Amino acid sequence: MDIVYAAEKPSIARLFSERMQRFVQPEELRITENPDETGSFYIGWQLDRYVMSPDGGIARDSLSLVD
User: Fold this and answer.
1) Is residue 21 left, alpha or beta, with left meaning phi > 0 and alpha meaning psi from -120 to 50?
2) For the segment 3-45, what is each residue's pLDDT rounded down to a tens digit?
């Protein structure tokens, strides 16, 4: 799976840069598979986490903290 991430990371960084409206280097992103949805990824950037859907949409992940 690391090979897929290495190949796709520049594409994900390009899409993410468009969403953030600033240039983001692929090395700045932490990308992990989203086990809840096939073809979806979690994107960690700085202190935030985003979700990329299979259609390429990117939204901030709304984490809920449980007591």
Assistant:
1) left
2) 445 558 898 999 999 999 999 999 999 999 988 888 889 999 9
Cβ(16)–Cβ(8) below 8 Å: no
Cα dihedral 46, 51, 16, 58 sign: negative
With 0.90 as the threshold, say if the pTM is over it: no
Q: Is 10 helix (H, G, I), strand (E, B) or coil?
A: helix
Cross-sheet strand order for the sheet of 58-60: 29-33, 41-45, 48-52, 58-60
Give the residue from 45, 44, 42, 62 showing the smallest Cα distance to 53.
42
Distance in angstroms (rounded) separating the CA atoms of residues 28 and 10: 11
Is the CB of residue 51 less than 8 Å from the CB of residue 41? yes
